[in-house]
Design a protein that fits this description.
The chain is mostly beta strands. It is built from six helices and 30 strands. An eight-stranded mixed sheet has the order 13-21-22-19-18-17-20-23, with no helix packed on it.
């Protein structure tokens, strides 16, 4: 007789007024309420028995898989692999006492789950040495629902966690890694790989509760050549190498896929682990200055190009480029280089070189509108066909963002040029019939299969006489 049948018969013995059909219907209702993916039939029987004040003497099988987890399970033991793990954090209680908490994501053959390690378990000896893919045994833990109603494994007093050296059929990290091109909206607890596409930048903000926050932003390109936006909440530039080459390979452990303003995006949090090729000493970059603009903080934002026609976004926080002009060829040793994103600070070196004809000027690297492709960065020259329009766009968080757009053309085609926030103001200065030169435009997929061009912090609009 199966464990389920044994438990069912014990419940029927103690509640003879119930029929098997009654209990099966109750099981169905329990699973619909909690979620079939989180509750097994035998787990539902325990919950039903508890509703009637009955304690079933036969314990639930404690060796289980992640798919068998349900809220309320106690003293469960299971073998699984680590996907990612956050540092231990100390929190304060209302009574003035404090506790430690560490979060972890684990996986097996067909499921993932969140694990919380409490107090002394958050700082178990050797826990800092546990790596993604390591096989672990969780012993006598209990399961509670998180804020989303999903079962979370809790390791507190009486429970334990230990590494295991056994052979296992649970796949390793490499075998569960997905390329960016394979992602679909709604997926979570993923290991994602791709290549850096463009710049990496940090962001600081104030959340809806008035608390300061931070995030790391980048774009990853998949094997199909298409790119996807990445936002890692709670992360900053301290978690990545100072030097990252263009097209560097990246792997993110513990992310999800959700819908954003420009299609689906990859989102992570402070527990997400980031593996990026890099860390080597900086090499000097020789580039021609295509355009110089100033941001709201007074820092120079420079678009440059090298002899291989690679464009660079150069952020000068040291005022070391004040003496240079558009068209100058410069040599720079940056403090940070993330793909094509270059940071100059007090530890950087910059000097002007003699002109080098091998490095093309702005007029020779401009792209015709008909040659613009999605995810590229471009400089164009065009005529304004429509009066720029401004509107306020409401985000999912309730924030109102300015978006300005204008319709332009050259002798090969027409295209929309758009700008968000501060870049919206640049567009508003343009007038119908003007011939303009624009640098540092990003091409993105628009509506009905068209391509739109977006201004960036490194864009500059120059009106031609």
């Amino acid at each position: 007789m199966s464990e389920f049948e044994t438990l069912l018969n014990k419940l029927l013995e103690q509640k003879p007024e119930l029929t098997r059909s009654d209990i099966e219907e109750m099981i169905k209702q329990k699973k619909e309420k909690i979620g079939a993916g989180y509750l097994t039939d035998q787990g539902a029987v325990f919950l039903i028995a508890s509703d009637f004040g009955i304690s079933l003497s036969e314990p639930l099988k404690t060796e289980m898989g992640l798919k068998d987890l349900y809220a309320g399970a106690k003293e469960i033991s299971l073998e699984t692999r680590v996907l990612n793990m956050s540092p231990a954090k100390q929190f304060s209680r209302k009574d003035g006492s404090s506790f430690f908490l560490r979060s972890m994501t684990v996986y097996d053959n067909n499921s993932t789950a969140s694990v919380k390690l409490w107090d002394e378990k958050a700082n178990l000896p050797g826990i800092e040495n546990i790596k993604p893919g390591d096989l672990i045994k969780i012993i006598k833990a209990y399961v509670k629902s998180d804020l989303n109603g999903e079962p979370t494994i809790n390791i507190g007093t009486g429970a334990n966690l230990q590494t295991v050296q056994n052979d296992s059929d649970i796949p390793n990290i490499d075998n569960i890694t997905k390329d960016v091109s394979e992602l679909q909206e709604g997926q979570k607890d993923l290991v994602v790989s791709g290549m850096i596409d463009g710049m990496i930048s940090g962001m600081e903000f104030t959340n809806s509760r008035g608390q300061p926050g931070k995030a790391l932003r980048m774009r990853l390109k998949g094997k199909d050549g298409n790119s996807m936006r990445v936002v890692l909440w709670g992360q900053d530039e301290s978690v990545i190498p100072n030097m990252i080459s263009q097209d560097a390979k990246v792997r993110l452990l513990g992310v999800k896929v959700r819908s954003g303003n420009q299609g689906i995006e990859i989102h992570g949090n402070e527990s997400t682990l980031i593996e990026i090729e890099g860390g080597k000493e900086a090499e000097p970059i020789i580039a021609r200055i295509l355009s110089i603009s100033t941001n709201e903080n007074g820092n120079k934002m420079i678009l440059g190009v090298d002899k291989d026609k690679k464009l660079f976004n150069i952020s000068d926080f040291s005022n070391s480029t004040n003496v240079f002009s558009e068209g100058d060829v410069i040599e720079l040793m940056p403090s940070k280089a993330y793909g094509n994103s270059i940071t100059l600070d007090d530890n950087s070196f910059v000097r002007k070189l003699d002109d080098d004809e091998k490095i093309l000027s702005l007029s020779k690297i401009r792209t015709k509108i008909n040659d613009v492709k999605v995810d590229g960065t471009y400089c164009i020259e065009a005529i304004v066909l429509k009066v720029p329009e401004r509107r306020e766009v409401q985000t999912k968080t309730g924030e109102s963002i300015a978006l300005s757009e204008m319709f332009v053309e050259d002798d090969t085609g027409q295209i929309w040029v758009k700008g968000w926030r501060n870049q919206a103001r640049l567009i508003e200065t343009c007038e119908i019939g003007e011939i303009i030169s624009i640098t540092g435009l990003n091409a993105r997929s628009g509506l009905e299969g068209r391509i739109d061009l977006f201004l960036t912090a490194f864009s500059k609009i120059t009106k031609k006489n």
